[in-house]
Every structure is written in C-alpha cells, then in structure tokens.
From TrEMBL:
InterPro entries: His_Pase_superF_clade-1, His_PPase_superfam, PGM_Phosphatase. The active site is at 9 (tele-phosphohistidine intermediate), 83 (proton donor/acceptor). This is Histidine phosphatase family protein. Substrate binds at residue 59. It comes from Paenibacillus albiflavus. GO terms for cellular component: cytoplasm. One of its GO terms (molecular function) is phosphatase activity. Pfam families: His_Phos_1 (PF00300).
Length: 204
C-alpha cells in the first residue's frame, strides 16, 4: 500500500501583497513559517513519511525543509511539481495583471497559452508524468511519500490521481499548509482526507 501525503506550502509574501504567484519565487511570510513549523510537527507526530519530494520554489522548499528537519527524513526537489507556469502574469499585482492580460470571453480554454503561460493541457500532462513516474517507482512498496507543492498543482495531481477530466469546474481547496492524504492499495485509489488544517486553526 502506497500513501501520498500531499501538502501545500505556507503563506507567502505574494499572498499578502495580492500578486499573481505561479512561477514567481516569493518567500514565506513570518506567519507562513509558523504554519510550516506546525505542519511539520503534526506530520512528524501522526503521519511521518518515508521521504519528501518538494517543488524547488522557495515557499514550498522552505515548508518541505521544516518537515524534513522535524521528521528526519530525506528531501528531494522535483521541478515537475512546481506551480502552474503563469508566464507574464508571474509576480504582477492581480489588478494590474487582469488589466494587461484579461481572460478571454468564456474563460481560458484548455489549449490557451496567452500571456506566455503553460496551457492547462500541458499542466495536466506534467502532473500525469510526475504521478506515472512516482507510481512506477513506488506503487509496490509500503511507503508514505510526502509531496510539498502548490494549490494549482495539487488540484491537477488530484485530477490525475482520480482520472478526472482536464477541464472541469470541480476543484479541491488547499489552504495554507493544507494536508491531503491519498492511498493506493493494489488498483484501488482512495481519498482519506483533504485540506486538513487543524494544526493552524487558531491562526486562520
């Protein structure tokens, strides 16, 4: 049985400055550091992983480093699990970004790469590729793997995990250091819980 403990990073500077983040590489805020510290302590106590795979972007990598230190397990960085590549939007204040690069009528289409962004089809393919490699390597092992990433990528990975369509209106919430637990037992895929945040309940 393989378990995937999927964790979103803590609050970043872009969150409080209301900026498009994506591939813009913002640091954690002081609150984000506290959130990551608590998440690490919770994970070490209740869901200690066998290894950690993290996006190399600062907000995720720092969150992963707290988990790695608390759990004393090895940390690997993987570019495939970085956030959606939002091209020219990265780092812009949201109001400015929406003025410069407004959404087309009817919203962004799955193939759309306007503003030099990654299309949703390309984004989904990246999540599928990562999951395929991961399952190829670990599906026959009894391990728990912690994946530290971003809200957008976690949604794409969730859709890949459940074999859901690329273009759909349904999504899962991933708050600051929200924790998800997914399980694969032979050919059966289970969602155990999503967006657990009790470790920071008094901070929300």
């Amino acid at each position: 049985m393989l378990e995937l403990l999927v964790v979103r990073h803590g609050q970043s500077v872009a969150d409080i400055e209301n900026r498009f983040e994506g591939r813009a590489d913002f640091e954690l805020t002081s609150l984000g550091i506290e959130q990551a510290t608590r998440a690490a302590q919770f994970i070490n106590t209740y869901y200690k992983p066998d290894l950690i795979i993290s996006s190399p972007l600062k907000r995720a990598s720092k969150t992963a480093e707290f988990i790695s230190s608390a759990c004393k397990v090895e940390l690997f960085f993987e570019e495939e699990i970085m956030e959606w590549n939002n091209g020219l939007l990265a780092g812009l204040p949201r109001e400015e970004g929406m003025l410069k690069f407004p959404l087309p009528p009817g919203g962004r289409k799955p193939h759309d790469t306007s503003a030099e962004t990654e299309s949703f089809i390309q984004f989904r393919a990246r999540a599928e590729t990562f999951l395929s490699k991961l399952l190829s390597q670990f599906s026959d092992t009894n391990q728990r793997i912690c994946i530290v990433s971003h809200g957008g990528f976690i949604n794409m990975l969730f859709r890949s995990f459940l074999r859901l369509p690329v273009n759909m209106e349904t999504s899962i919430s991933s708050g600051d250091t929200g924790i998800h637990l997914w399980r694969i037992d032979r050919n059966e895929r289970e969602i155990i819980f999503t967006n657990y945040q009790e470790h920071i309940r008094d901070l929300i």
